[in-house]
Amino acid sequence: MTVRVQAAAFDAGAELNAFAKNRTDVGAVVSFTGVVRDTDGTLQQMEIEHYPGMTERAIAEIVGQVQSRWALADVLVIHRHGVLPVGAPIMMVATASAHRADAFFAADYLMDYLKSRAPFWKKETTADGTAWVAAKDEDEAALNRW
Amino acid sequence: MNVMYFAWVRERIGLPQEEVQTEAVTVADLVAELAAREDRYAAAFADISALRVALDQELSDFDAPLAGVREVAFFPPMTGG
Predict the structure, then answer these.
(1) What is the pLDDT of residues B17-75, one digit of tens each?
(2) Residue B20 is inside which H or E element, if any?
(3) A93 to chain B, minimum CA–CA distance in Å?
(4) Confidence label for A40 from pLDDT (cuts 50, 70 and 90)
(5) What is the pLDDT of residues A67-87, one digit of tens each?
(6) What are phi and psi of B61, to 5 degrees?
(7) All domains of chain B in start order, with CATH
(8) What count of other Cβ atoms lies within 10 Å of the Cβ of residue B51?
(9) CB-CB under 8 Å, A34 with B78
(10) Among chain B residues, CA nearest to A117
């Protein structure tokens, strides 16, 4: 298991290759990368605040949950904080398993819980100023799927 | 205890954390004490249904007891991922 919370940019492709390299015990590697999205063509940058200490604890707890629910050979979570430009990767998860179902389910669960239970907050800057991104009801509802 | 604020809660109150001496029994009692201090606190705590609280870095509830707690954090619902 690898968890990294960092300000620095990362290369999602290189991270995925390194994660999957030299593994002969897995038949499935699933990954998800979250990217800074400019829905209306007005976003200048995104800033992500987090709660150092609680962030690492919350992610470790979520990773522990997926490891107990599904048969996983390995899990990777990277999440950035600080100022991010449009189009930059914000975060990624990768899961490795003998079979694809476990890898897919675990990656999906990780994303639902990282979104609503890891202490990160997004703030968007446009020409009109800055605004905190509001949590969506469906993000909270997504947790009930599990 | 150390009281921390994040995101727009931090911006409304105007500081990231502070040491608070309190006899508050529950989180809700602490919120009432803080909200009574000044307008900026009252504004931050006007609607606690819009807030979340963590006690010693674990998500908790506003009716939770504060006995033995060293760090309380208030913040809006999280928007990671």
Answers:
(1) 999 999 999 999 999 999 999 999 999 999 999 999 999 999 999 999 999 999 999 99
(2) none
(3) 10
(4) confident
(5) 999 999 999 999 999 999 999
(6) -130, 160
(7) 2-75 (3.10.20.30)
(8) 17
(9) no
(10) B78
Distance from CA of B5 to the nearest CA of A (A): 9
Round to whole Å and give the CA distance between A105 and A95: 9
Domains along the sequence of chain A with CATH: 2-145 (3.90.1170.40)
Q: How many helices (H) and strands (E) does chain B have?
A: 3, 5
Candidates A92, A114, A105, A93; CA nearest to A145 is A105
Contact A57 B57 (CB under 8 A): yes
Residue type, A118: A
Predicted pLDDT of residue A23: 87
Dihedral sign computed on CA atoms, order A4, A31, A48, A134:
negative
Q: Which two tokens stand for residue B9?
A: 């809660």
- Compute the distance between CA of residue B18 and CA of residue B14 in angstroms, rounded to an integer: 11
Residue A73 half-sphere exposure toward CB, CA atoms < 13 A = 17
Neighbours of A60 (CB within 10 A): 13
Q: Please report the pLDDT score of residue A45 as a whole number.
A: 96
CA neighbor of B24 nearest in space, from B51, B55, B46: B55
Residue A34 has its nearest CB partner, among B54, B78, B81, at: B81
Confidence band for A7, pLDDT divided at 50, 70 and 90: very high
Contact between A26 and A104 under an 8 Å Cβ cutoff? The reply is no
